């Protein structure tokens, strides 16, 4: 109960900080916001000074920041995110539409990383110093060193341009998931493999693990009863930290492959000076980080009840 109350307080603090930070950043951006918003509505080739003036008058841009900030925080407390300055649609409706595509992509990337990384890491940790351990160290270091945007470009060149196996961009079928999920998931899998390897090697060297073998349990039984649960604790802990890397990667990867998710929408909202969309999107991402960490805390307590004390 104390943990849930703490997470609730953290969510409130995140909402206030993200709201204030995004408001300050959007207000401090250089250039004419009315021109950018008009360009977002009518296209850069069709925007005119008259259209920009009309947007300026319609939205009352350039007023004092304090009343605008007070109105934004008041709307935030009432869970009223307003409407998009470009599309005119409610911000929550647009975010709900885009969040689904991002969640499916993020789940595919995390699932791929958990499918690849931990099994290889556990096998390497059971035989530290072996060929698999050394090979995994080399490959995981190389994958972790490659930025996600560069990984996406490499995969597009190899899998789409050279071999023609996968579409380079787009959305709608299962084949469209594979390339962006690989770009996001390979780096996460490399880190998961190293964490699982180190945890497994440390646990396998402990006396209780050898005692279980001395009692007559098979290697598989010892691993299942005493190894996997202990390896899961550091893996789940790091999964919460991975959410930050995942959000950063989603923003970049969605823009590269044209994925209609919340990261792609955030980039367009920043370029179009769509302040309500930027504020709403950043707030949803911040609260998502709190929610993911709360769920991981509950899972850790379930695995190791001592965490609740």
From TrEMBL:
It comes from the Bacteria. Its main location: membrane. It is found in: Cell membrane. Gene3D superfamilies: MetI-like (1.10.3720.10). InterPro entries: MetI-like, MetI-like_sf. GO terms for cellular component: plasma membrane. PANTHER family: DIPEPTIDE TRANSPORT SYSTEM PERMEASE PROTEIN DPPB-RELATED (PTHR43163:SF6). This is Glutathione transport system permease protein GsiC. It comes from Yoonia vestfoldensis.
């Amino acid at each position: 109960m104390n943990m849930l109350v703490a997470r609730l307080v953290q969510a409130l603090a995140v909402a206030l900080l993200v709201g204030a930070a995004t408001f300050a950043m959007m207000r401090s951006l250089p250039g004419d916001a009315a021109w950018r918003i008009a360009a977002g509505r009518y296209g850069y080739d069709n925007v005119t000074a008259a259209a920009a003036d009309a947007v300026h008058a319609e939205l009352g841009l350039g007023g004092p920041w304090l009343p605008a900030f007070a109105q934004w925080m008041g709307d935030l407390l009432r869970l009223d995110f307003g409407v998009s300055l470009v599309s005119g649609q409610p911000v929550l409706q647009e975010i709900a539409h885009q969040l689904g595509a991002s969640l499916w992509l993020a789940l595919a990337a995390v699932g791929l990383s958990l499918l690849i990384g931990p099994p290889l890491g556990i096998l390497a940790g059971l035989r530290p110093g072996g060929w698999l351990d050394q090979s995994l160290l080399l490959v995981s270091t190389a994958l972790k060193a490659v930025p996600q945007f560069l990984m996406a470009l490499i995969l597009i060149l190899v899998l789409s341009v050279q071999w023609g196996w996968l579409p380079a961009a787009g959305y709608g079928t299962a084949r469209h998931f594979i390339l962006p999920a690989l770009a996001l998931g390979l780096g996460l899998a490399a880190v998961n493999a190293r964490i699982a390897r180190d945890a497994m090697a440390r646990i396998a060297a402990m006396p209780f693990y050898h005692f279980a073998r001395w009692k007559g349990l098979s290697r598989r039984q010892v691993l299942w009863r005493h190894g996997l649960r202990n390896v899961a604790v550091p893996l789940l802990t790091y999964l919460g930290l991975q959410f930050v890397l995942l959000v950063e990667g989603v923003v970049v990867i969605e823009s590269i492959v044209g994925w209609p998710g919340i990261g792609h929408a955030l980039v367009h909202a920043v370029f179009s000076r769509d302040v309500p969309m930027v504020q709403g999107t950043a707030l949803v991402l911040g609260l998502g980080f709190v929610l993911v960490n709360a769920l991981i805390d509950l899972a850790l307590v379930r695995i190791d009840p001592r965490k609740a004390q």
